Amino acid sequence: MTKRNAPHISVLLREVIEILAPKDGEVFVDGTFGAGGYSQAILEAANCVVYGIDRDPLAISIGHKMADKYSGRLRMLEGCYADMEMLLAAKGLSAVDGIALDIGVSSMQIDEADRGFSFMRDGPLDMRMSSKGRTAAEVVNEESEAELARIIFVYGEERRSRAIARVVVERREVKPFTSTVELAEAVASVVRPTGKGIHPATRTFQALRIFVNDELGQLVKGLAASERLLTPSGRLAVVSFQSLEDRRVKNFLSARSEGRARPSRHVPVNDEGPAPSFKLVKRGAIKAREDELTANSRSRSARLRGAIRTSAKAWDEVAA
């Protein structure tokens, strides 16, 4: 397995811990465990318990090794954070005091060429965060030209999606795509560099990764599960790196912090609608401070949104 020896740095770590404000005796969920940076910081901040969730077997392995240091206070669960209710219920838990989510691919996964997330190093065109489901190669080689264009446009916000889909279909008829470099070269043949140092294949790779792992679907389910699991005064911290993700987090929390759902600000509030289930920690997203921007370039695109659970029922419970 090819790796790059760069340490994984948890983005906006200080700010996440400020939102979660761990206290002795509390229970937390690190829904996207990764290399365990958030879990470790939570455990160091208070004599509490953290359930680390991840669908990546490598992350689970890291977590089990880390757990030895914390005398049973770190407990690993293999699976997706969208299924956290089911995973926690199997352990007898139906409520927690705080949840941290770091949405998207981790630098640890990108650094492993064999995972196929990056076009910077040649590797198999995989992109799965777990070992289940279709690979990116299967999507690229099997989907129709129209569907490929849709995936690349919707999940990558790539304006040249039709041209990319066309060249992909033309080339796969000669030889199916198997590696990251092959796909990156195909995309680069029809997408011009921006002049900002961004590789032409960046948006296409983002789109395929999100599609293969159903990241937006998992995010929507995970946010709803968080609303149901958090106790009154429970804290939620969500870090995202793409506008597609951040927009969903923003809309979810904004609606539930204002309450009384309405289709537009110009439409009168429905007084019979659900009461606010969250209180925002801050209006707008929290961004990395200057010292973190200097130390970790990945933090430049990071957006953190935090909220505190009220005593109101979860919105889907009200609708039911």
Automatic annotation (TrEMBL):
It catalyses: cytidine(1402) in 16S rRNA + S-adenosyl-L-methionine = N(4)-methylcytidine(1402) in 16S rRNA + S-adenosyl-L-homocysteine + H(+). It is an enzyme of class 2 (transferase). The keyword Metal-binding does not apply. It holds the Pfam family Methyltransf_5. Keywords: Cytoplasm, Methyltransferase, rRNA processing, S-adenosyl-L-methionine, Transferase. It comes from the Bacteria. Its EC number is 2.1.1.199. One of its GO terms (molecular function) is methyltransferase activity. Residues 257-276 are annotated as: Disordered. S-adenosyl-L-methionine binds at G36, G37, Y38, D54, Y81, D102, Q109. The keyword S-adenosyl-L-methionine applies. It is found in: Cytoplasm. GO terms for biological process: methylation. NCBIfam families: 16S rRNA (cytosine(1402)-N(4))-methyltransferase RsmH. Specifically methylates the N4 position of cytidine in position 1402 (C1402) of 16S rRNA. Belongs to the methyltransferase superfamily. RsmH family. PANTHER family: 12S RRNA N4-METHYLCYTIDINE METHYLTRANSFERASE, S-ADENOSYL-METHYLTRANSFERASE MRAW. This is Ribosomal RNA small subunit methyltransferase H. It comes from Sneathiella marina. The gene is rsmH.
